[in-house]
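REVIEWER CHECKLIST
Item 1: Sequence provided? yes
Item 2: Single chain? yes
Item 3: Sequence as submitted:
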Amino acid sequence: MFTLQKSTPNGRRGTLTTAHGVLETPFFLPVATAGAMKGLTFDELLSIGAEVLLSNTYHLHLHPGEDTVDQAGGLHSFIHWNKPILTDSGGFQVFSLRQISKLSDAGVEFRDHRSGAPHFIGPVEAMQIQHKLGADIIMCFDECPPSTAPRAKQIEAVDRTIRWAKTCKETHEKLKAERKTNPLLFGIVQGGLEPDLRKKCAEELIAIGFDGYAVGGLAVGESESEMFDVLKLVCPILPEDKPRYLMGVGDLNQQKQGIAYGIDMFDCVAAMREARHGTLWLSNGEKLRILRAEHKNDHSPIDANSPSPLSRDHLKSYLHHLMRLGERYGETIACMQNMAVTLRAMKETRESL
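Item 4: Structure as written out by the authors:
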């Protein structure tokens, strides 16, 4: 259940109640793709303010399989995380495997990107998998072409997304009754950069009725202004009393602007990915490329004002040394830095509303 507490020109504040806790909005979801954070323990993640995780349906379906997770008592028990979890539908990953997948109105046939084994996911299967995983928030299975795909492709994707959303809702309601659980189900607005298609998709999803609404198919090739144009169109259409989720956007300035347009939730792998490759997001808004030679003998703190104690305590020269050698502790320091900065920025924005 979502409760809107305040709406301002700079964004909204609210609470989203789930089976594993209440989340204050707006918030950011760290991405634990296969049920783990690369470079961080969950205790470390909690220490920097994380309240929720996103895990990946596609990857968990392939390994260890939703039946294994279900037998363990669900994803919370399986990974030992007691706060809320959101699972995506697997659609984005399946559609990114365009060379090894086959699309039909029933769903997508695809091959495991590692073993080559055949699989199929459609709207029914996406709901069955996510219910067995036991997430608090689950997503409809949608067709998600790049935002810059031709209009004809966007029309097909929107029509299919709406049809699949109806099937997801019907299957979801049956599974809730059978399993006696009550995860929240979000619909996903597609339509690329076509205003009429975005409007149609949003209105059709609202007519079906969901617990929240995501804006998908962005941050995949369009300009920043084009992305914001979609948000300016879609957010006023979406119900005020439901949470709004912008998928895959990790840039802190884009998040702040998205909040001003009415977005309540964000996720992205960018902070962790850049950290593992040696780019640090500093508390002053700048980026630091720690692998550069100039940092070999820079014995100043990594970030004296960091929300991560590791960056306040350790030297740039030390982190340069670790990252150059590929030491895993270097990844931990860098990942803690970027995620802590991301979470603090979201908290500060939330508290300013």
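Item 5: Key structural point noted by reviewer: Residues 298 and 317 are 5 Å apart (CA to CA).
Item 6: Recommendation: ____
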